[in-house]
Amino acid sequence: MIERLDKVLASQNIGSRKEVGHLIRKGIVTVNGIVVKKADMKVNGELDKICVNGAALQFKRYLYLMMNKPAGILSASRDNLCQTVLNLLPQTYQRRGLFPAGRLDRDTEGLLIITNDGIFAHKMLAPKSNIDKVYHAKLNVPVTAEDIVRFAQGVVINGLHCLPASLESFEKNNEPWARITVCEGKFHQVKRMLAACGKIVLYLERVKIGNLELDTDLKRGQVRELTIEEKDAILHK
Hints:
Blueprint (H helix, E strand, L loop, with lengths): L1 E3 H7 L5 H9 L3 E3 L2 E2 L6 E3 L5 E3 L2 E2 L7 E6 L29 E2 L8 E7 L2 H8 L7 E7 L5 H9 L2 E2 L2 E2 L4 E7 L2 E8 L6 H8 L4 E9 L2 E2 L9 E3 L2 H7 L3
Parallel strand pairs: 9-15
Antiparallel strand pairs: 1-4, 2-3, 2-5, 5-6, 7-9, 7-17, 8-9, 10-14, 10-15, 11-12, 13-14, 15-16
Helix pairs in contact: 1-2
């Protein structure tokens, strides 16, 4: 894609359009070995060799990040009152256009994808894509066989029909837990589906999207870039 040089540099977190324009005018930006002093020069970030002060630009049009979201943080791009997941990103990943692909409730933890690729996010989130999202929930009481059947048939919540989902029961530390698999993401859906079955969610964590599992080496609040294989795993069941 052919774009202005200052736009390409700004998109890669080199600085604002104004800041990168200043760098260009100072003569410390080269394109294919030639010093460039015009911010509006047309370049292809994927093909041209762009250097800033001698350092080659590692151009990436799209960024795909895995975060182990902690509780108490909003899954939003910005908020005037509360800290958001983008506030947790280290400087190396800060860039314009990033957003959380799908939201986790403020008190829900676990796997969250952050990207600037809207088409990819839509494919991941659209119910017709049938991409599973798997959660582990700590409950006040154990799941029953009747609950499992209700989930498989599609829970109805105040007239809202949820798509069929999977519900499994397991124990951890002698406490009742459930594994929930859904392919849609309505507001507070997992909690509301379990509440419709008389269950209170005491803790909720997303552990898997498609074939991508949460990296257990990531501590809460940490983030890392996805590999190509991991990105592809999201869209394949």
